[in-house]
Amino acid sequence: MMRNLGKNEQKILLLLLTGLALPFTRSALAQYRLLHTASVEWGRISRYGLPKAVRLLEQKKLITLVRSKDDTYLVRPTVRGRERASLLQLLETKLIVKNKWDGKWRLVIFDIPEEKRKMRNLLRQCLKNWDFYKLQASVFVCPYDCRDAVDLLIRTCNGERYVKFIEAEHISHDQGIRKHFALC
After folding, report:
1. Better pLDDT: 123 or 5
2. Percentage of the chain surpassing pLDDT 70?
3. Can you give the pLDDT at residue 14?
4. Separation CA 103–CA 117 (nearest Å)
5. Cα–Cα nearest to 126, from 110, 104, 102
6. Per-residue DSSP letter, 25
7. Rounded Cα–Cα distance for residues 24 and 26 (Å)
8. Which run of H or of E encompasses 166?
9. DSSP 122-164
10. pLDDT per residue over 14-41, tens digit each?
11. Which of 38, 51, 76, 108 is the most exposed place for a label (fewest CB within 10 A)?
């Protein structure tokens, strides 16, 4: 799903999402961090590749360009562009891990039909990025409290019908899982 966007296009979408989040950030420190991160990331975008990236995003209907009276352009993400940026943000996010395991396993199981392959691939990619253990093709395990993050992922993918989150106290033959998370 994300492979058809280059690095510059991805960065531009994420930066536009940052700009959308700024007015909703109440803390001055959080606003400063958002602006500082955005400034650093803008500096990393190739100046030569920027016009091409903007043109491609506009062609893919992920942004709109609005020309102002002073001959400058205002770049706005479309609804589709905001959705794509949110997915990119989820893919880049790392799961926060607690130091101490509470003895419960968190399982994400899914049965997503073939016609929704993109959703299935995105879900798998996120779970892998979050270092979940792949128990089976459609079953992933994590020992840490991650319900909020998984719920957000499920909502973002519109996968409520196909994805289940389970907390369990026991998984038989869990030595491989424990080894993966260094819980031995």
Report:
1. 123
2. 87
3. 76
4. 33
5. 110
6. -
7. 6
8. strand 163-168
9. HHHHHHHHTT-EEEETTEEEESS--HHHHHHHHHHTT-TTTEE
10. 777 776 555 656 677 766 776 766 677 7
11. 51
> What is the full DSSP assignment across 77-123?
E-HHHHHHHHHHHHHHPPPP--SS--S-EEEEEE---GGGHHHHHHH
What residues are paired with 168 via a beta bridge? 105
Q: What Cα–Cα distance (Å) separates residue 78 from each residue in 16, 74, 81?
A: 10, 13, 5
Task: Indicate the SS3 state at residue 181.
Answer: coil
Give the pLDDT confidence score for residue 1 in this predicted structure. Answer: 44
Q: Please identify which residue in the block is written with the tokens 């792949």.
A: 134
* Closest to 129 measured CA to CA, from 105, 95, 99: 95
Domains of the chain: 7-92 (1.10.10), 105-180 (3.30.70.240)
pTM, 2 dp: 0.66
Q: Which residue has the higher pLDDT, 15 or 137?
A: 137
Whose CA is closest to 101, among 143, 130, 150, 141?
A: 143
148, pLDDT greater than 50? yes
Q: Which residues contact 178 (CB under 8 A, 6 or more apart)?
A: 184
**Confidence tier at 83 by pLDDT (50, 70, 90):** confident
Give the burial string for 20-47 (b: 16+ CB within 10 Å, else e).
eeeeeeeeeeeeeebeeebeeeeeebee
Q: How many Cβ atoms are within 10 Å of 51's Cβ, its own excluded?
A: 9
